[in-house]
Amino acid sequence: MVPMRYLEEMARGLDARAALREASRCLLCLDAPCSKGCPAGTDPGKFIRSLRFLNEEGAAYVIRINNALGALCARLCPTESLCQKGCLRAGLDKPVDIGGIQRYLTDLEAENGWEFLSPGEDTGKKVAIVGSGPAGLEAAAVLRSYGHGVVIYEKEEQAGGVLRYGIPAYRLPEEVLEREIKRILDLGVELRTKAEVGRDVDSDALKKEYDAVLYCIGYTKGKVVEPFKGKENVVSALDLLRKIKKDPASFKAPENVLIVGGGDVAMDVIGSLKRLGSRRLVCVAYEELGEFRASQKEFGDALKEADSIIAGYVPESYDGKETVFRHRFLESRLSIKADLTVLAVGQTYEAEGLPLVFEKGTVKGTFHTSGDPKVFFAGDIAPEKGKLVVHAVKSGKEAAMIIDRRIGGHKNGK
Amino acid sequence: MENRLAIEILGVAFPNPFCLSSSPVSNDYEMCAKAYKAGFGGIVFKTIGPKDYLIDEVSPRFDATSKEGTPFLGFKNMEQIAEHPYEENLDALRRLKKDFPDKVLIASIMGNDDESWAYIARDVEEAGADMVELNFSCPQMTSHAMGSDVGTSPELCRHYCEIVRANTKLPIIAKMTPNLAEMNTVARACLEGGADAISAINTVKSITHVDLDKLVPLPIIDGKSSVSGYSGAAVRPIGLRFVSDLARDERLKGAPIGGIGGIETWRDAAEYILLGASFLQLTTAVMEYGYRVVEDLIDGLNRYMVRHGCEHLEEMVGLANKNVIPAEELNRDYRYLPEIDEEKCLKCLRCVVSCYDGAHQAISYDEKTRKPTIDENKCVGCHLCELVCPAGAIRGGKVVYKAGRKVAKPLL
Ligand SMILES: Cc1cc2nc3c(=O)[nH]c(=O)nc-3n(C[C@H](O)[C@H](O)[C@H](O)COP(=O)(O)OP(=O)(O)OC[C@H]3O[C@@H](n4cnc5c(N)ncnc54)[C@H](O)[C@@H]3O)c2cc1C
Ligand SMILES: Cc1cc2nc3c(=O)[nH]c(=O)nc-3n(C[C@H](O)[C@H](O)[C@H](O)COP(=O)(O)O)c2cc1C
Question: What range does the domain containing B126 cover?
Fold first, then answer.
């Protein structure tokens, strides 16, 4: 039995009254700064105003038409550093809970079965998308709205990328993800799973079959660094989270776990293991507290779950059980024994057999175009700044627009 | 703190001016006793009608309007008068007077012919009421010989006042309907007929909402609805206007006025008093928040009086009326230009939006810094910007005299 604490969404959503009250806190700025804070171009100034004037359906439309993954961003965006950062209401008390309102509206959309997205008139063109994370999904939705045929190749059993195999259920319930993916597939997108391009599917063959190929392969491999390389009882955070998400029922949480790293991924490991039954969780990060990369929300939640979070230490040696750390600046050593050591020290790509050239961890090329006129890329692997779901959405949307311009043919796209 | 709120009206001593108005909040002995104990100085008991008049209420019977998360901005009801049997109501009056001899007990009454007005008046006096209030104003009676259909006719009001006058020695209050272009004609007729005081207002005829799927106004009663009375905060400006109109009318000979309509806070109460009310009644605030609202009404008003060195409530009554003048007599020689406090300004630019779309395009802003600036030549000094500013950053600033007009420092 998987504990409900793991499966159930941790944060409670706003109800109709609370959402309206929150919308009423909005100052309705001219030229709303929040609307300039969304990488994906969501316009909170507009959807909050629509809600304020009781046009819930219009408000939900504003979100969805701009972002096919609006219900996910509502939950996963570190809004405090994006839209809400610009909120002028902060000058009076605190920013409007834009994420909360977006979640309310996208939930309402589902509840009412509102359908805002529709495919464009068939252009006869076909695009292959490799990878079904947020970048690939958003690109698929946009390309279908233009009327292009879309086939997604996904190496895993199910679509979603990090959304499916990384982000824990208590932050993103399965049914929400299913809804978002289904809405996109219902536009007429074909999904081929267990189809790894470069292994099961030949990348040259793809190029021949399609008018364009868009690679959105993300960062699927957790980094394993020294002194942990090749040692036992070590796992990357990505592998651990993937294992949990694939089969939480048969996952056995180790008693005592050491987590190395201080970003959102480390926080997700802490939250998952605690909910699944680990007893002692100790997290050691290279960063000093002020430099922690985890979002406020996630760090705050992890503080309640972890038994200790120690900042500013670098791992020096590991013997399969015990890690010795030294402090970055002071004369200080720390040694910790654990049943399992989880490395949340960064992710990287796996692109063997793919026509992509990497440079410093991202694909070489600009505007989502590689040297090859038929090959495009988007998402985490693109060189643009920002490695969040919302950036992947932006990236997927832009790539789709560029591909559309390249292959031409659509009549009713924007 | 000493109590400065005691006031005597028509020989009746009110411990404070706050009364329950006639409605379900004053429905029976227990409710009224609780209200007295909570601090109300007086009670207008739920309107007592003729012995044989059948009250048959609908369900549901209320609706409310709201704005931006504020519930009960206004409140609509479809109730008529007392549901309890006639004798039970008289008995409640008797017990209330006996158990709370120092509080004021007002009986609200409504007849449907000469005979019933007469005997109800006699009976409530006999039961111990200190005053009677004639309900000429309920807008949703099932009989057209009753309620606001009577209250819009000066002749009928005068007539029924005469009948009641002949049957009781108690002071008579006539309760007015606001569903009139002006109230003073009816009020004068009531005084001519023998009434001693006026209370205003009863509820405003309204439709609050329409169910957009069923196409029926709210509340829905078996697929239909009716026009009925609106009360609460939304009607306060209407109540204040009528009270002031009455108080400024010399022909009403200074008859005491009971202020009613949307009173929730001591500030609302103070406004009614300053415009001429010497006692106050409320219902909707009690329905929403309970009898305890009286605590802050009493305490807040008392403190206000202490701050302003006002010893007796009487001194306050009607003080603001000398400053209510006809529009044609207002000083139109100057513009009072608003000023933006930069420290408080949040740069939301709501002022710009409203000035452009609702006023005179006098506020511009810097695209980079978002700082708004008022153009003194274009600004007419309407102060719409001040009203929309969510930060309270806009206030009156300087006075500019219109060309060729009198230059004399105005009172701002
Ligand atoms: C644990 C974790 C938590 C996170 N939490 C948040 C958060 O709260 N908020 C936030 O905004 N961001 C978060 N992020 C970051 C965010 O998830 C990523 O930025 C985003 O998922 C990137 O999207 P993508 O589409 O580029 O790649 P991915 O989501 O990684 O998807 C890539 C997909 O491509 C598939 N694939 C790869 N290679 C092939 C191939 N050769 N053939 C076929 N398919 C292939 C993969 O299986 C995968 O499905 C988190 C990341 C992690 C790891
Ligand atoms: C539910 C309800 C029932 C009422 N019943 C009566 C009544 O029986 N007699 C009467 O004179 N006024 C009645 N009124 C009117 C109130 O006494 C009062 O005049 C009006 O509601 C305005 O005051 P408020 O805004 O404080 O509620 C009723 C009002 C409400 C809301």
Answer: 7-323
Q: Which atom belonging to ligand 2 lies closest to the Cα atom of B232?
A: 25
For the residues A95-115, what does the mean pLDDT come to? 97
Mutate to test the interface with A, among B68, B361, B363 (most CBs of A within 10 A): B68
pLDDT digits (tens, 9 = 90+) for A120-165: 999 999 999 999 999 999 999 999 999 999 999 999 999 999 999 9
Kindly list the residues of chain A whose beta carbon comes within 8 Å of any beta carbon in chain B: 17, 20-21, 24, 27-31, 52, 88-89, 91-92
Q: Catalytic: B19?
A: no
- Asked if residue A158 is part of any domain, the answer here is yes
Per the CB < 8 A criterion, the answer to whether A171 and A268 are in contact is yes
Strand-pair category, A358-359 with B7-9: unpaired
Least confident piece of the model among A209-218, B53-62, B302-311: B53-62
What is the complex's ipTM, to 2 decimals? 0.77
B287/B348 same-domain check: no
pLDDT at B410 over 70: yes
- Indicate if the pLDDT at residue B361 is higher than 70: yes
pLDDT grade for A413, boundaries at 50, 70 and 90: very low
Give the chain B residue nearest A20 (alpha carbons).
Answer: B69
H/E segment holding residue B198 = strand B197-200
The reply to whether residue A20 touches residue B353, judged by beta carbons under 8 angstroms, is: no
Of chain B, the percentage scoring pLDDT greater than 70 comes to 100
The residue-averaged pLDDT of A176-183 equals 98
Choose, out of A17, A29, A89, A104, the residue to mutate when testing the contact with B (most B CBs < 10 Å): A29
Nearest residue to A183 via CA among A129, A140, A130? A140
Rounded Cα distance between A143 and A145, Å, is 5
Of the candidates A28, A51, A84, A53, the residue with the CA atom closest to the CA atom of residue B350 = A28
What is the DSSP secondary structure assignment for residue B349, as one 8-state letter?
Answer: -
Q: Which two tokens stand for residue B172?
A: 């008579």
For residue B324, what are its two tokens? 């209510």
Looking at per-residue confidence, does A301 or A91 come out higher? A91
pLDDT at B51 over 80: yes
Q: How many domains does chain B fold into?
A: 2
| Count of CA atoms in the C-beta half-sphere (13 A) of A286 | 11
A198 lines ligand 1 (CB under 6 A): yes
Cα separation, B171 vs A137, whole angstroms:
79
Q: Are residues B389 and B292 in the same domain?
A: no
pLDDT at A411: 62
Give distance in angstroms: CA of A143 to centre of ligand 2.
62
Cβ distance A28 to B350 less than 8 Å, yes or no, reads yes
DSSP B48: E
B253 and B367 share one domain: no
How far, rounded to the nearest angstrom, does the alpha carbon of residue B300 sit from its chain's CA centroid? 18
Task: Determine the distance in angstroms separating the CA of A23 from the nearest CA of chain B, rounded to an integer.
Answer: 8
Q: Is residue A118 situated within a structural domain?
A: no
- Give tens-digit pLDDT for B85-121: 999 999 999 999 999 999 999 999 999 999 999 999 9
Summarize pLDDT for A222-274 with one digit per residue, the tens.
999 999 999 999 999 999 999 999 999 999 999 999 999 988 899 999 999 99
End position of a domain, from candidates A77, A112, A147 = A112
Same-domain check for residues A306 and A366:
no
CA distance, residue A236 to nearest chain B CA (Å): 46
**Minimum CA distance residue for ligand 2 atom 19:** B202
A121 in a structural domain:
no
Q: Which of B19, B32, B138, B157 is catalytic?
A: B138
Q: What is the spatial order of strands in the sheet that A322-327 belongs to?
A: A313-318, A322-327, A333-337
Whether the bond between A119 and the residue before it is cis, its omega within 30 degrees of 0, is no
Check: CB of residue A218 under 8 Å from CB of residue A161: yes
Q: What angle do CA B360, B361, B362 make, to 5 degrees?
A: 90
- Retrieve residue B195's tokens: 């009434």
